[in-house]
Amino acid sequence: MSNKKNLTLFGFFALTATMVMTVYEYPSFASSGFSLVFYLIVGGFFWFLPVALCAAEMATVKGWDTGGVYAWSGNLLGEKWGFANIFFQWFQGTVGFVTMIYFILSALSYVFNFEPLNSNPMVRFLGVVLIFWIVTLSQFKGTKISAKISRYGFIIGILIPALVLFGLTIAYFLTGGKSLLTFDFKTFIPDFSKVNTLVVFVSFILAYAGIEASASHANEMKNVKRDYPIAVIGLVILAILLNTMGGLSIGSVVPADKLGLSTGVLQGFKGLLAHFGTNFEWIVRVIAILISMGVLAETTAWIVGPSWGMQVAGKTGLLPKSLSKTNKDGVPTQFLILQGVIVTIWAAILTFGGNGNSNLSFFAGMSLTVIIYALAYIIFFVAYLVLVTKHDSIERAFRISKSKIVQYFFGISGLVFSIIVFFISFIPPSQLHSSTAQREYFMILIVSFILVVFVPFIIYQIMRKKNPLPKGAKMPTLEEDETHGN
């Protein structure tokens, strides 16, 4: 990690925004009606903000700015937990890739009027596998090109469609358009008596997840103590506003019983444009292509990105040497092939396990991603609370507050919400009406969770027995970094 203090407030803001802003999740928000605003506010200030602030404290400890959660949790809870943390953070992406490509297939299905891409399980599965492996193999020559794709993809596939959507929505209401949603206090507060409606909250957490990955860049900010909190608070507010506008735009014109989670964005554009005439079908197709490019760029960015933390752990002997080796372009090709195999397996489980039900597959994939990610965040927040409780004198460039009460508030808030999200993710969502679909959803999650939860601990025990931690690769101890005069 560079020690140069050359990252401006706007530079950090833009870098982080590209990691957490999406358009394709708007339909998930819209499915909650006006209560989406409640979910976004609660999730933003009581989970998203704690993740960002707690990550910054741990990332700015001297020597902990590489390796991400592996270094943070490893130093505070022990290397085994650090490895479990980075494993779950990486592994959730192998599920998330499937849901991202589901959206691409749905968009292409609409553009080319080829329904099997969205409804036929075998075609859907082959589509996911083909797209993912093409993108994976394209990374073998290095990530310089993919970095440009990600940058332009954000502008073309996320920013432009979002601005067009908001512009159309404003014009829709100014010209007499009526909303299908009811805007009042009763619809603002979710019905907590119906537990299965809460499972939709997982989509809001998933929309915010990943901000901790940018925390390591806090050390590069010119004035981290002043600029970091401004950047993350601004990002929370912007994310709440944009996601609110996006969700309400789609929910206002698409009936809840006809809303497709992987096709809802296009349904929203189609509904808004229908208000102005009937000859705008080509615009919807163009938007579908643009959003597909944005999601493809996001997929490209995450193909290699999450694997780097695992590579840090791998270099200390926690992965076979073949998985830690890189090619002449610095890409861990063997590891990416393994990742591709895992994604292919998940695509089969989610697609065929969903029995052809695209909403079930999308919901199951999204919930499974959150379940695995929630495990990573639970370890993450426990590590932060240990830092505050036992090692608060460790020097770091950024602190949430000098008050331990404030530090505990953010740490406990994030931990509690992570635990809540973990458990409610197993509850079948109300959008799955049949008992058969609900049973399949639950079985997919339970079986998948059991298969995943023990994996990092088994890998750790096997690899550490085979490769004891080398002296040169020893993780920095708390005593080495601790400054009692702080």
From TrEMBL:
One of its GO terms (molecular function) is transmembrane transporter activity. It is a multi-pass membrane protein. The chain crosses the membrane at residues 7-24, 36-56, 90-110, 122-140, 152-175, 195-216, 228-250, 282-305, 335-354, 360-387, 408-429, 441-462. It holds the Pfam family AA_permease_2. Keywords: Cell membrane, Membrane, Transmembrane, Transmembrane helix, Transport. One of its GO terms (cellular component) is plasma membrane. This is Glutamate:gamma-aminobutyrate antiporter. The lineage of its organism: Bacteria, Bacillati, Bacillota, Erysipelotrichia, Erysipelotrichales.
